[in-house]
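Full entry
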Amino acid sequence: MRPLKTIAAAFALLCAAVTPASAAPREVSNAISGAQQVGEARYQLLGVTLFNAELYTANGAFAWSTPFALTLTYERSARQSTLINRSISEMRSRGAGSAEALAPLRVQLQRCFPDIARGDRVTGVSTGANTARFYHNGAHRCDIEWPNFRRHFFGIWLDGRDGAAARVSAQLRGET
């Protein structure tokens, strides 16, 4: 009987070794056939973790020209207004336009983002250069269509330009 237990234990260890550490959330698997994790990163401010991020694509490699999904799992609560204001501010810094020009997008984002509690998961699936679909804890929240949305919005996390943001973006894109 002892050899049988040893074989079973070895088999369990082997299975654990070949199982991906992070399986894609259901909404990612449904949106991207064969979704594979590209990278992951922890976003911190003054040593406090705000959220953990994971990037998925169909082939496990990131390219701006192909669909991808970005999942954020929050470690802290956040108000809807804070998420939207920060998103608009970051998009403006990436050349998306003035606050006035982005006002209609602000209205769309209000449908996408609720108040966030610790442990909530928000997933954005970039389906095209101008389109995205958003989920909250796996439930579909909204679809967005906006010029160059992929680069302006998802660039907040994937286009770090300097310092710690560049390092974290590179981790998500699987470059480190």
Remarks:
- The mean pLDDT is 86.
- The beta strands are 36-45, 48-57, 68-74, 121-128, 131-136, 139-145.
